[in-house]
Write a structure and sequence with these properties.
By secondary structure, the protein is of the alpha/beta class. It has 23 helices and 25 strands. Helix content is 47%, strand content 20%. The strands form 6 sheets. Strands 12-16-17-15-14-13 form a 6-stranded mixed sheet. The chain has a 5-stranded mixed sheet with strand order 4-6-7-9-8. Helix 1 runs antiparallel to helix 4. The chain is flat, with a radius of gyration of 36 Å.
């Protein structure tokens, strides 16, 4: 590539950036002018944006862009001078011109001469009052409202990064005063890759942690000072004793010399301790400032994700014959760049859903006593370390009776059950995959890809979404997501001697439970709190950690919420709340069960951040398979060292539960698995004294399981019993040849036979 070609390519890229910024100004200004054509500041802003684009297009040699921007500028100047009052037809044409300019600036796309000519003819006809042909359709272009660039970020700097495209200064038509105001108010920017930003945040967080390591050294110096003072006092006492005992002058002189040396060392210690204290304080302040600055570099105003949403709502409403306006509050709310990028899709879907499903046609709104124009309000705010979004429309709300019929017709629940459901329970069905209230598929909706996709994306951000409605008055979506995915406010606890962090967004409360509060309900442990019972589980079992041995007067519990259900997770110790810098796990590890990422504590030790959604799924699996263990008071889990553990593997729920109850009643600690693969995973994750397995099972049969056990060095000595319906000699021989120690036929199965066989293999339940 020649230097001239490189210069042209660079200019075209800069023109694309200029077009993105100026078309956003045009979109926002034109939508405001559609509501009030007399807004002088918006007319001025739109005229300046069109003028800047005209100059920029002229510099890079895009004649079509010059023509379109010039025609738009003429129209806006006429409105400024009072020669033209902007009407809906003018706004439509100017918005179309904005789309054409953005299309022209897109790299690798043709300039669309036919569309440009049609636009110019149409706009000229509107200006002179003649009847003009509607503009020809615009060729397919990239998204008319470009989203934020995923690989780069705009950062404030102290030097101007873009001086190659002096769009405003190139055209003398703009007033000097406006040009000066723009130059003074413009924020200087520099493009930086997201990877470098992430690296900067990672380094700054490590620097912040390193400064905390000075504290032990300072504490050691302070301790030395105290010991030194004690030594000085001891010498003073010794000197008094020696003087009274009539010791010679040599001894007293040596003692005095020692005291002088100790005084000098005391002064040095005091000075070094003071210097270290000052250095540590300054280092921590600088590291904190560095970290805060690096974190701020990742933060962007919420308005960045809203670029073009007002235009989208307006255009979609017009295509459906509706008048809709988007009103936004909290545009300057700061949010992490990664969160913003992932919010764009769910917010767009919710807005389209509100326009299509919520807002009524103008005639219907008038009959309901509402203004013709529907309003969708989107509010953004900070609350307890979270970004809280509220999307509210003033439409018709949700027809609950129609929703009841749809649920029953789809066979999702019996009609009599649906009739007794509360409003919240009914609305929960709208988040099911494939559920839609539309009978016909349109370009906007009806395909069943709806709120379930939104919920999935929001949960991917470690957030939540809630829907409420008021019949005839509209719907309200309440979303809560973290402000940043790089930093998470967490509660640090210890489980099995290791540190784990629960994100605060998932914690309902923390408390300490007395032994007397723990009760058994339907075979599960619960405790009562504020008038309701909460299921109790051991974090040590969920996270595959050994149960703690410390006896405590009260049991620390973290209460987490899953919709309307609460679960109490018993831990060893509540360390306290921390703000943690998220460090992704090595990609080679894949998805680690129940863990989302890691972080460093102030002392440099590693803490694992719990994936609460995954943890709840693990909990449900334990409940459904009957493997949930008791939480003993004082931190002693159901893995008591004296109780022998048995793993029962069978795909029949009836047989599995029967064996579990028989063995549990005899005092054995029993875990169950639903098939051979599940059993193999359980054997690798935990230790057992006996394996009882069926033969015919999906995914992995019992013979394969026994073979794997006998090949594993750790499990070679594990006693294995096969319990099968097959009672033929060849079947018995297959099981024993594979390595089983005992073969029991289900046809002759009864209580005593199973228990006697287990006792013969591993003895009684108590070791």
């Amino acid at each position: 590539m020649t230097p001239e070609q490189m210069r042209d390519a660079s200019l075209l890229e800069l023109f694309g950036l200029e077009a993105e910024a100026q078309t956003q100004v045009l979109n926002a200004g034109l939508l405001a002018l559609e509501r009030d054509p007399t807004l002088a500041d918006q007319l001025e802003a739109c005229m300046r944006a069109a003028h800047s684009l005209k100059g920029a297009a002229r510099i890079v040699g895009i004649d079509a862009g010059v023509s379109v921007a010039h025609a738009m500028e003429d129209c806006l100047v006429a409105a400024q001078e009072g020669r033209l009052r902007l009407g809906p037809e003018h706004i439509d044409a100017l918005l179309r011109g904005t789309d054409i300019l953005l299309h022209i600036a897109a790299p690798g796309h043709p300039q669309g001469e036919i569309a440009v000519a049609g636009f110019l003819t149409h706009l000229a006809g509107l200006l002179d009052g003649s009847t003009a042909q509607p503009p020809l359709p615009l060729p397919v272009a990239p998204s008319p409202v470009p989203g934020p660039a995923p690989a780069t970020e705009m950062l404030p700097v102290d030097s101007m990064a873009y001086q190659a495209l002096p769009a405003v200064e190139a055209q003398p038509a703009l007033p000097r005063k406006a040009t000066k105001r723009n130059a003074e108010g413009a924020e200087r920017v520099l493009r930086v890759t997201a990877e470098r930003l992430n690296g900067l945040l990672d380094l700054s967080s490590k620097a912040l942690v390193e400064t905390q390591r000075l504290k032990p050294y300072l504490a050691t110096l302070q301790r030395l000072k105290r010991m030194h003072g004690q030594g000085m006092r001891a010498l003073d006492g010794l000197k008094v004793q020696l003087e009274g005992s009539g010791q010679g002058p040599e001894v007293l002189e040596a003692l005095a010399q020692t005291q002088r040396l100790l005084v000098e060392t005391q002064q040095i210690l005091q000075q070094q301790a003071a210097d270290l204290d000052e250095f540590g304080w300054q280092a921590s302040q600088r590291a904190q400032a560095l970290y805060d600055t690096a974190l701020a570099c990742r933060m962007r105003p919420f308005a960045d994700v809203l670029s073009g949403q007002s235009r989208m709502v307006r255009d979609l409403g017009r295509s459906l014959g509706k008048q809709v306006r988007l009103h936004i509050e909290g545009e300057k709310t700061q949010v992490d760049r990664d969160v913003l990028e992932k919010l764009e899709a769910p917010l767009t879907h919710l807005l389209r859903n509100a326009v299509d499903h919520g807002i009524e046609l103008p005639g219907q709104r008038l009959l309901s006593g509402k203004p013709e124009e529907g309003v969708i309000r989107l509010r953004a705010s900070h609350q307890a370390g979270l970004l809280v979004l509220e999307l509210i429309d003033d439409g018709a709300g949700i027809d609950l009776e129609r929703l009841r019929r749809s649920i029953a017709e789809r066979g999702l629940s019996p009609a009599e059950t649906v009739a007794r459901m509360s409003e919240a329970e009914l609305l929960a069905f709208l988040f099911l995959p494939g559920f839609s209230l539309r009978d016909q598929v349109t370009e906007v909706s009806g395909r069943g890809v709806g709120l379930d996709a939104v919920q999935h994306m929001v949960r991917g951000l470690r957030g939540s979404i809630e829907l409420t409605q008021q019949a005839g008055q509209g719907c309200r979506f309440h979303l809560e997501v973290p402000l940043t995915l790089s930093v998470v406010r967490s509660l640090v606890v210890t489980v099995g001697g290791e540190a784990y962090a629960f994100p605060l967004a998932h914690i309902e409360r923390t408390l300490e439970v007395d032994a007397e509060q723990i009760v058994q309900i339907e075979g599960r442990q619960h405790f009562w709190h504020e008038g309701r019972h909460i299921g109790l589980v051991a974090a040590s079992q969920l996270l595959n950690r050994p149960a703690g041995q410390d006896e405590q007067a009260r049991l620390p519990v973290v209460v987490i919420r899953e919709r309307e259900r609460l679960y109490g997770v018993a831990v060893e110790r509540l360390v306290g709340e921390r703000v943690l810098v998220v460090m992704p796990l090595d990609a080679r590890l894949g998805k680690v069960q129940d863990i989302s990422s890691g972080a460093l504590l102030d002392d440099g030790s590693v803490v694992l951040i719990v994936d609460v959604e995954d943890l709840l799924r693990s909990l449900e699996k334990l409940l459904s398979s009957g493997r949930l263990e008791r939480v003993e008071h004082g931190g002693q889990g159901g893995r008591g060292q004296a109780r022998k553990r048995v793993l029962v593997v069978d795909d029949s729920l009836t047989v599995r539960e029967l064996q579990r109850k028989l063995l549990s009643n005899r005092g054995y600690d029993v875990a169950v698995a639903v098939d051979g693969m599940d059993g193999w995973n359980a054997l690798r994750a935990d230790s057992f004294d006996l394996l009882i397995t069926d033969i015919d099972m999906p995914r992995m049969d019992g013979i394969e399981l026994v073979t794997l056990v006998r090949r594993d060095q750790r499990l070679q000595g594990l006693p294995v019993m096969v319990v099968s319906y097959k009672d033929r000699e060849e079947d018995r021989r297959r099981g024993l040849d594979a390595g089983a120690d005992y073969y029991l036929a289900k046809a002759s199965f009864h209580d005593d036979a199973l228990l006697d066989a287990v006792g013969e293999l591993i003895g009684g339940a108590q070791g």
